[in-house]
Amino acid sequence: MYKTKDGEEIFVIDGHVHLWDGSPENQRNVHGAEFINCFYGYHAALSPKEEVWPREKFEKYGAETMYEDLFVKGYDDMAIFQPTYLKEFYKNGFNTLEQNASLGTRYPERFVINGAFDPRHGEAGLEQLQADVEQYKIKGVKLYTAEWIGDSKGYKLSDDHAKRYLERAEKLGIKNIHVHKGPTILPLNRDAFDVADIDDAATCFPNLNFIVEHCGLPRLDDFCWIAVQEPNVYGGLAVALPFIHSRPGYFAHIISELLFWLGEDRILFGSDYGIWTPKWLVDAFMEFELPDDVRKETKVDLSLTAKKKILGLNAARIYNIDIEAKKAALGYRQSVAAE
Q1: Could you give the number of structural domains in the chain?
Q2: Residue 264 included in any domain
Q3: Which domain holds residue 203?
Q4: Angle at the Cα of 184 (from 79 to 229), degrees rounded to 5?
Q5: What are 260-309's pLDDT values in tens digits?
Q6: In a domain, 6, yes or no
Q7: Radius of gyration of the CA atoms of the chain, in A
């Protein structure tokens, strides 16, 4: 939990974390190496020097390190697992539901375990989705529209087979649809991460929440023009947040545009762990203020109220998390001090 200088406590829900294995032993082919190398490039380029990990740790950090970084060293009170399978690149998958659940089920008060689906898996995929709901009680999924499967290098949420999966997800009680729509990652195709299909999907499924991870970067304008018209579209700050250190002016542009178009109720914090760790991100975010010229032009401000919503309250609302009940379940005040 983060405490302000005035002693006010802010409950932090990290909306985007992974427990991955990108080690050479798990890499199926050169694409596995390319993918994790690209991740490491973002990590090294956008992190403070003292926060850069050795490559070996970055490739496979393990459950104990993750728990320590999120909840002991970091300010996270809860975190949401977002799986990314990539079985074309990794023998056992890069970051699967099962991998995440191996930690998440040990600490059920700490983690929300999300699933995933890919409409190219047909009937078998629908059956697996139902099985995942029954076993893990998932309320959200992470979709990776640029993932390769055989000769296919991606799909769109506006495809008929994707809509069939979204319809089934809604019937199964899956409310939150997290979609990677961010920078390209070698060797995946940039165009397969385009945000245009969010528009159609959000209109067709108004009862679902579409959390656009990485807020569409580098397509911020396209995303904002879609999101302002679709009240069930949210922006996830993973990947955007590290610019608060490396390019604060650029981050000011990103967050002010999101506040202007979406408002403070539809933006979610995400560390993208293990690309970045939440402690330094939250510290920097809480210290950050919009420049005067940006506030004057956009008529928005990154107030303490807005920061509290972004860091936890918005995620709590869409996942029906009772924060006071969670505090009690986590043993606050005793356990936080003990950690």
Answers
A1: 1
A2: yes
A3: 12-338
A4: 70
A5: 999 999 999 999 999 999 999 999 999 999 999 999 999 999 999 999 99
A6: no
A7: 19
